[in-house]
Every structure is written in C-alpha cells, then in structure tokens.
Design goal:
By secondary structure, this protein is of the alpha+beta class. The protein is built from one helix and three strands.
Length: 61
C-alpha cells in the first residue's frame, strides 16, 4: 500500500514536469513570463506568445 501511495505521489508531482515540452507549438499555452516573447518551432516558423480571444496566453504564428 505504501508503494502505491508513493508511486501516486511521484506521478502527481512529476506529471507537470513531463508535460512541459522544450519545443513550442502553435496553439500551445505559454507562461506569463514568456508573454510578448518570440520563439521558433520545429519547422523554423516564428511564434509569438500572446493572449487569445479568451485572454489565455498561447504561442501563435
């Protein structure tokens, strides 16, 4: 039972770290500190972090 609880705790703590990718994609969420900054996606296109229609920050072409 302890092993199962430990595995669940690790999964909950580690899940956001695994989900965060190093390469940005069009439509992917970006953080507040990335707001207004530019990055390059895998294909070489320039992406900008800005708010969408709902006010959420996303990478856009």
């Amino acid at each position: 039972m302890r092993r199962m609880a430990l595995a669940l705790a690790f999964a909950l703590v580690a899940a956001p770290a695994f989900a965060k990718g190093s390469k940005h994609k069009d439509g992917q969420f970006c953080s507040k500190k990335q707001s207004g900054k530019t990055a390059t996606d895998k294909s070489g296109a320039t992406l900008t972090c800005k708010a969408d229609d709902k006010g959420k920050l996303r990478w856009t072409k």
